[in-house]
Amino acid sequence: MGLLERLRKEWFILGIVLVIAVARLEPAVGVKGGPLKPEITITYIAVSAIFFNSGLSLKTEELTSALMHVKLHLFVQIFTLVFFPTAIWLFLQLLSITPINEWLLKGLQTVGCMPPPVSSAVILTKAVGGNEAAAIFNSAFGSFLGIVITPLLLLLFLVRTR
Fold first, then answer.
1. Could you tell me if 147 and 77 are in contact, meaning their C-beta atoms sit under 8 angstroms apart?
2. Which of 14, 47, 102, 118 is the most buried (most CB within 10 A)?
């Protein structure tokens, strides 16, 4: 595989590395209120564009077929919203005996209880040739479930750590 072919295949990862490098060199471009206006572009435009683009590239039959994989959806949602927060909680129990700040541990638990970002789940699934329709469904469904389940998980895990 030639270098140019490899670059074309790995364009997404290379793009991520490039953006991280540019952000490191010039962080003022991406700050709130900066020239990129991330509070608008990321919140409204980028996520909508990702779903719109994914929706255009999917055939209706693929999406309908993906909806029928109930076991897959159950596995993904249970892993994301039950197993992962519990594993993080167990790991943080080990870290709590170290001198790490208690609020940092609570912040890590909070992030561990949230569903994964929609954009990364869909884009990374597409990049590796996975079931994009199932990724779109699980991302959207997990985000809606997260509205209710995340606060309940936080009550369960963070109240216990007082």
1. no
2. 118
Closest CA to 117 of 42, 53, 52: 42
Distance in angstroms (rounded) separating the CA atoms of residues 154 and 115 = 13
3-state secondary structure of 35: coil
Cβ within 8 Å of residue 46, ≥6 positions away:
119
Residue listed under structure tokens 């540019």: 22
CB burial class (10 A; 0-12, 13-18, 19+) of residue 25? exposed
Q: What is the pTM of this model?
A: 0.64
**Over the stretch 5-30, which tens digit does the pLDDT of each residue have?**
888 888 888 998 999 999 899 988 88
Burial of residue 128 (CB within 10 Å: 0-12, 13-18, 19+) is exposed
Residue 115: closest CA among 86, 139, 88 = 139
Residues 136/58, Cβ–Cβ less than 8 Å: yes
Contact partners, residue 1, CB within 8 Å, separation at least 6? 9
- Give the separation between CA 38 and CA 45, rounded to whole angstroms: 9
